[in-house]
Amino acid sequence: MSVEEISDGIFEIDQDDRKSLATRNLMPGISVYGERLVEVDDEEYRLWDPKRSKLGAMALKNFEIPITYDSTVLYLGAASGTTVSHVSDILRDGLVYAVEFSPRTMRDLIQLCDQRPNIIPILADANKPHSYAHVVEKADVIFQDVAQPNQAEIAAINSKYFLEEHGHLMLSIKSRSIDTTASPKKIFKDEVRKLESGFDVEFEVLQRKELGPFHEDHLGLVARMFVDDE
Amino acid sequence: MRTSGGSELATKFSSWFGSFTLDKEGEVTNSKLFEKDPEILAQRVLELQESGQDAPAIIPDLRQLALDCGFVDLDEDYDILLRDVCIRAAKSRISGTDTDDVRIVHAVEALDDIDKNVNELSERLLEWYGMYFPELELTGEPLARFVMAFGSRANVPEDHQLFDKASKSMGSEISFADEELLRAFASNLCGLYDTRRQIESYIVTGMGSLAPNLTDIAGGLLGARLISIAGSLEKLAAFPSSTVQVIGANRALFKHLRSNTPSPKHGIIFNNVIIKNAPWWQRGKLARAFAAKISLAARTDFYSGEKDPSIKEQLEKKLTAIRKANPNPPKKKSKPKGKGRKKRGGKR
What we know:
The structure holds 2 protein chains of 2 kinds. By secondary structure, chain A is α/β, with parallel strands linked by helices. Chain A has helices spanning about 55-60, 80-90, 105-115, 150-160, 185-195; strands spanning about 1-5, 10-15, 20-25, 35-40, 45, 70-75, 95-100, 120-125, 140-145, 165-175, 200-210, 220-225. In chain A, the strands form 2 sheets. A 7-stranded mixed sheet of chain A has the order 8-7-6-9-10-12-11, with helices on both faces. In chain A, strands 1-2-3-5-4 form a 5-stranded antiparallel sheet. By secondary structure, chain B is mainly alpha-helical. Chain B has helices at about 40-50, 60-70, 75-95, 100-130, 140-150, 165, 175-210, 210-220, 220-230, 235-240, 240-245, 250-260, 275, 280-305, 310-325, 335-345; strands spanning about 10-15, 20, 30-35. Chains A and B meet through helix 3 and strand 8 of A and strand 1, helix 1 and helix 3 of B.
């Protein structure tokens, strides 16, 4: 059994020629959502199913993940915290602000926050960043996974408020929540164009790739906020 | 990056730990810190979230600000306190979302779940018990009550009306183990029927106080179903009445939007006697009037909460007028209706 760190805090464990993605467990002994725990060289890892996590799929698709050990991350669309728990593992010296709108899923997320010291839960609408501007500080990375038709716009306004200069935006675009009938390819193209020039903050898209076969009709995207030197 | 208009005016900004006045450069000129008590701070966070203050163009670095003005001494203290405050705030908002209409929605959904399961289980009981007493012509709840009471048909007393059938039955003999099992099964089923009745009366009484007008117009169960599908009373009140009219007819509605099939005349509001018992040529018109008053009732319930008997009166008046104006079925048009429909459906 061998372990290779493919990005800060993200590992690939090789078990009998079967590779699986994992993060080092911040809270040893505790499995968050039923994932398997594996011990290698006295370190406990939590296996990470890319089918249940856009970020996990992006890591497996050779994206360069801009999250480091000490990043501050703003996570929009945290849901029940499946992916957030892995982000929390990665951020040994960092902090993640987890924004989720639905009280029902927030219930699960809070139980996770009670266990882990580096997650700050915020029950708010990602469409209205000013409703949490009094809590959230500037972030190095914004990760967004919301199923809303105006995904690009949400990313832009949140970046404007909260993203550090030269900070990174990680985005998972779900074509089906924008238009169920149009072709995903066309939707992705439009969304990328919007990000590049459609709003008063602009982005330089560094990497983009579809997330199949883990997530159908999803585009993963990493971009850097373009800073205008006046 | 500049503030718009380049105004000289200072902006006010409240963070979770204090409120500040900023000059146009984003420098702090005045500050007032809140009390350092997690419970109070959590309340502040919620108030600020509700108030929706306009954030200034340049948001100050909150962490640095908290350190500078001495609210916290260390980076870690900031994290620990903020986390505590945010968890408290989120928890209190979650418990605040538990309103009366959420309870009703859960009850309606529980009712539907029970119906589904009761159907399956009573079918099973019918098949299973039929082996031992095929002549028994009971189904549903009476069957479950019978099996629970007697078990084997040998236990039916002489003065019971089914005694004759029971003694001459061609069913096979039931073993003791099977009898016990079937009785337990039937008694569980009876328990479900009882729970169903409890939930139903809970919904009807709950709706009476939550939405008196809606209950008056549509009845407790139908009103509760409408709230359940809409998601909440607030959402139902926000729906246009044309939507209320076809709630629950999703398939027919989208088929209509996609191809040129006729639009649905009614969704779940069909379950009210006003429409169910009406002749076919009046149903569309009645459904339209009925849905309009349902909307009105839901809005009155959500925004004023007081009972307004005039809605019901107006509805009755309108319904009578429609019935009077359309006493006879319309003459069929030159193209027979059924045929035309089929043709249009085939075009898809």
